[in-house]
Amino acid sequence: MAPILASGPGLSPTAAGSYYLRMREDSKTCTFGPESQYADLAAEVFSLLADATRVRIILALREGERSVNDLAEAIGRTPTTVSQHLAKLRWGRIVRSRQEGTRVYYSLVDEHARALVTEAVLQAQHALEDTPAHHRTAQGRIVVQPASPSEAEGTGAAAACPASGSGTDR
Fold it and tell me: What values do phi and psi take at 157, rounded to 5?
């Protein structure tokens, strides 16, 4: 996993004087609270992803590396525009580049941008539809997942989005 460069109080510097964020590899969970020194940096990541062209680039890179021209064709933008957005994504350590001859290929650095964009698209579906397609089985039944352990026991009424987990048919 390539770390995200950061600076701020309470972050440990490397020998080069830069600062890095790391998630606990063993649990893959985020245990930060609202007082976390990472909140501002997380907002910068969201700001970097708050552009439809960059979201489309990340969606196009989910399957693997692609050249600038392939990306431009896939998302319907000019190669110049795609290159400018890729430069910002490279700066934010979301994509990496690899040169082969005169062509440059791009890929996602890790799974986190893919997951963030996927969740954002699923949330966007909720904004447009009462019951988005990702909440329905092929047969049209609605699938829900409890939002919390107490709801799993039947004490709550809300349901979380099951798109990234297993749900129960309803």
Answer: -110, -20
CA dihedral sign of residues 75, 81, 85, 87: positive
What is 36-132's CATH number, 3.30.700.10, 1.10.10.10, 3.40.50.620, 3.80.30.20? 1.10.10.10
Record the pTM: 0.64
| 145: enclosing H helix or E strand | strand 143-146
Length of the chain equals: 170
pLDDT tens digit sequence for 103-156: 999 999 999 999 999 888 888 888 888 877 777 777 777 777 655 554 444 433
